[in-house]
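Bug #77: duplicate submission created two jobs. Keeping one. Sequence:
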Amino acid sequence: MGRNGTIAARNIFFVLGFLALIVMVWCIGFDTIVANVVKTGWWFFVIIAMWLPIYLINTAALNIIIRDDNPANCKVPFLHIFKINVSGFALKAATPLGFLGGDPYKIIELTPMLGVEKATSSVLLYTMTHITAQCIFWALSVVAAALFLPIPLKTSIILLVSFIIFVLLLYLLWRGYRRGLTVRFFRLMSRVPFLKRWVVPFCIRNNDTLLNIDHQISHLYNVRRRSFFLTLSLELVARICNCLEVYVILKSVNVDVSLIQSVVIYSFMSLFTNILFFSPMQIGTREGGFLLAFTALSLPGWLGVYVSLVTRVRELFWIGIGVLLMKVKGGTPPLQVAENVTDKQNN
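Kept job's structure:
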C-alpha cells in the first residue's frame, strides 16, 4: 500500500471512529454521562489516568514483538507505536467486531515502517499474546475464586468446566505460536462453500507471503523465547491492572470490596463480553456481565450498572483520544527512509 493509500485508509478509520464515538454518546445519553462523572467525583480523574500506564504496558509488549532483535526495527519510535496502539484499541472498542477495526488499522499504519509481512505478523502475534494473557487471566481468576470466595456447588462445576476450556484454548494458541496459524486459517476458510471461490485464489497468489508471516510468528516462540515470555508477562500485568478500575470505582461510592472480588468481577465481565464479541460496541454485554458478576457475589445489582456506566464514560474519553491521535503525524518510518536512500542511489 502506497502513501496515498495509507492516508486514505487512515481517514476512513478516522471517520468510522468519530461516527462510532457519536453513536456511543447518543446511546448512553449526555445527561447520564455528566451525572455519573459528578457522582464519581475526583475519583473519575484517577480512573481516566490509570489507563495511561495500562496502554504503555500494552505498547511495551507490542514494541518487543516489533523489534525482533533487528536494529532497523529498533528505530521505530516508541511514542509512534503508542499512538498507533491507542488508536487501534479505540477502534476495537468503538466498532462492531472490534478486531476487524483495530487490527487492520494497526497493520496499515505499521506497513510503511516494517513492510506488509512484518506488520501483519507483528499485529497477529500481539493479538495472539493479548488473547493468551486473557485466557491465563481467566484461568487464574477461576482458581482465585475457588480458593478465596464462598461458592455454591453449581457454580463450582461451572468454574471447573470453564477452567478446562481455558486450558484447551491455551493449548491451541501454543500450537499457533510453534507453527504459525495464517496458512492453516486460510486453508480452513478455503473449505467453506461460500468463501472458497475468493480464498483459494488469494492463497495461491500470496502463498509465499503467508508462509513468511507464519515463519515470523513461530520465530518469537521458537527462537526469542525470553522475549515471548516477557511480552506475555506484560500483557498479563495489564489484565491485572484492569481489575483495579473496578476496585477504584466502587471506592468512589464507599463500597468495600476485596481485590479478589474485583478480579472476579472484571474477569466475569470480560469473559461475557468476549463470548458475545459480535455485539456492536459491546452494547448490553458489558452491562449484563457486570450485573451477573455482582449478583453472583451477592452484591447489589445497581452497583454493576453503575460500574458499567463509569467504564463506558472512561472508554469514551480514551476513544476520543485514540481517534484524535489518528491525525497526529509520526516520524519518518525507517522503511521509507531506506527506500528513499535506495531510490537516490539508483538515480
